[in-house]
Amino acid sequence: MRLHRQVAAELLGRRLLPGEVVHHIDGDSLNNAPENLLVLPSQRHHASLEQDLRRARRGQPTLFPHLLEAERGWSRGTLFQHVG
């Protein structure tokens, strides 16, 4: 099992479901600190979030602004199980 999935599972107190994806909030896949991990329910959610983050960095309007609003509200030290 990859380290970021192992850390997320330990924090949640359960195994991750097969479709769940662990997102690195700061974009650094080597930073597996608990406060840098976000568990998303599917690869589809992860891809949408990544696309919106790229658009925001370029100053372009996002397709799903509620996802970025949720990201801005993430508190450090918390592992969220789902977005939205």
Characterise this structure.
The chain has 84 residues and is mainly α. The longest helix has 15 residues. The relative contact order is 0.18.
- Radius of gyration based on Cα positions: 13 Å
Tally of helical runs = 3
Helical content, roughly?
25-40%
Largest sheet: 2 strands, antiparallel
The strands making up the biggest β-sheet line up spatially as 1-2
Helices and strands in order:
Elements: H1 3-12, E1 21-24, E2 37-40, H2 43-57, H3 65-72
Antiparallel strand pairs: 1-2
List keywords for this structure.
10% strand; elongated; 84 residues; 39% helix; mainly alpha
Quick structural gist:
The chain has 84 residues and is mainly alpha-helical. The chain has three helices and two strands; from the N terminus they run αββαα.
